[in-house]
Design a protein that fits this description.
Rossmann fold, alpha/beta, single chain, globular, 13 helices, 16% strand, eight-stranded mixed beta sheet, 8 strands
C-alpha cells in the first residue's frame, strides 16, 4: 500500500466491510434520505451527455452506495446498470430498492472492492468511479480496474475530490479518513487514467459556481444538510455499528478538517472523463484476444468463472436473484489468476 491508508478490515470474501470509525460519507449514507452525491442530478445528466449514454448501454458505478445515481441513469436513459460497493449493508439496501421499484431486470449490485472488481474485461460502455471509490485502496489499482472492465472505446469517468494545491501525505490521510474519499491533485488523477490506457482526458470543476450552480460544494456538509433530529438518528445508528469510540473519533477529527476545508478552501469536486484506448491491431476483438493472451479480452463469449469466487454471493448473482440482461459479468478463473500474476510480477 505504500503511502496509502491501511486497508479496511476484510470479511470472508475479501471485501472491505468497515473501518474502526465512520467517515462523513458513512454518516451521510446512514441517513434514510436518498441523497445524490455532490454535483447532484445536473452532474449526472451531464455525464450521460458526455458519454453519449443511450438505451441498452451497460453502465457501471463503483462506490455506488444505495444506488441513487445508478437508479437515476437507468430510469432516465434505459441503460442496464451494475453497481459495486465495499459495504454489504448498502448493497442489500440498493438491491431491495431496485426490487421495490420494479427495476430488478435492469439493475444489479455486487459487494466488492474497487481494486478487484468482480467483472470480466471490457464489458461496460460507461464506467463511473464515485467519491468513495479509492478511500481505502490504492487509487492507481482502482482506476486500472475501472478501465479494465470498460470496453475499448468506452467512457471512463471519475467524480472525485481534487486538491487545489500540493498537500502533504499526513494531511491527505486525515482528509481521506474523515471524509471517506481520497483527495488528490487533478494532475495525479489524470496520470492514473493515462497509465490505465485511458486517453482524450478532460476535466471539469464542479465546485465552480459557473459550472455547477450557486452554492455548489465539493463534499457533503453534515452540519447543514441534516436537521437536528436527523443527526440524532444518524449518530444513533453509527453508535450501534462503530461504538462510542468510533463516533468520538470522527468528531475528534472535525476541528482539523473543518479548518482545512473551510478556511483554506483546499478541495474542489472534479469530473474527469476519458476514453478507453482502442488497440489498433484488434479489429476482431475475439480473435485478437485469442492470439495475444496478454491483451484485454473484450468478447462476450468467455464463460463465467466459478460463482464461489465472486465476492458477496453464493451463486454468482446478488441475493435478489436479479441479473443485468445480456451482460456476461464474471471472468474466467484463469483470467483472474493471470491478472493476479501480472500484478504480483
Amino acid at each position: 500500500m505504500g503511502a496509502y491508508l491501511t486497508p479496511m478490515p476484510q470479511n470472508s470474501s475479501g471485501t472491505g466491510v468497515t473501518a474502526s470509525a465512520p467517515s462523513m460519507l458513512d454518516l451521510v449514507r446512514l441517513s434514510p434520505r436518498l441523497l445524490f452525491p455532490p454535483g447532484g442530478v445536473d452532474l449526472y445528466r451531464h455525464i450521460a451527455l458526455l458519454t453519449d449514454m443511450k438505451a441498452g448501454d451497460e453502465v457501471l458505478v463503483v462506490g455506488c452506495g444505495k444506488g441513487v445515481t445508478l437508479e437515476y441513469l437507468v430510469r432516465e436513459h434505459q441503460v442496464h446498470g451494475s453497481g459495486v460497493d465495499a459495504d454489504p449493508d448498502l448493497v442489500d439496501i440498493a438491491e431491495a430498492r431496485a426490487r421495490e421499484a420494479g427495476l430488478g431486470m435492469s439493475l444489479q449490485f455486487q459487494t466488492g472492492s474497487a481494486d478487484a472488481l468482480p467483472y470480466r474485461d471490457g464489458i461496460f460502455d460507461v464506467a463511473v468511479g464515485e467519491l468513495g471509490m479509492a478511500a481505502f485502496v490504492d487509487p492507481g489499482e482502482a482506476v486500472r480496474e475501472l478501465a479494465r472492465v470498460t470496453r475499448p472505446g468506452g467512457s471512463v469517468v471519475l467524480v472525485q475530490l481534487s486538491c487545489k494545491g500540493p498537500v502533504d501525505e499526513s494531511r491527505r490521510q486525515v482528509l481521506a479518513e474523515h471524509l471517506g474519499a481520497r483527495p488528490m491533485m487533478a494532475v495525479e488523477w489524470k496520470r492514473l487514467l493515462k497509465s490505465a490506457e485511458v486517453e482524450d482526458i478532460f476535466t471539469e470543476d464542479w465546485s465552480d459556481e459557473e459550472t455547477a450552480g450557486p452554492g455548489a460544494k465539493p463534499f457533503f456538509d453534515f452540519t447543514e444538510i441534516f436537521s437536528l433530529s436527523e443527526k440524532a438518528g444518524i449518530l444513533r445508528r453509527a453508535w450501534q455499528r462503530w461504538g462510542l469510540k468510533g463516533v468520538r473519533t470522527v468528531f475528534g477529527r472535525e476541528r482539523e478538517v473543518h479548518r482545512l476545508l473551510k478556511r483554506e478552501r483546499l478541495l474542489r469536486l472534479d469530473l474527469l472523463k476519458g476514453r478507453r484506448r482502442v488497440l489498433e491491431h484488434a479489429e476482431d476483438p475475439e480473435q485478437a484476444s485469442a492470439e495475444t493472451p496478454g491483451e484485454v479480452r473484450v468478447g462476450p463469449q468467455a464463460s463465467p468463472r466459478d460463482p464461489a469466487d465472486v465476492p458477496g454471493s453464493a451463486d454468482g448473482n446478488s441475493e435478489s436473484g436479479t441479473q443485468t440482461a445480456g451482460l456476461p459479468l464474471f471472468g474466467r478463473e484463469e483470467e483472474v489468476d493471470r491478472r493476479d500474476d501480472d500484478n504480483t510480477g
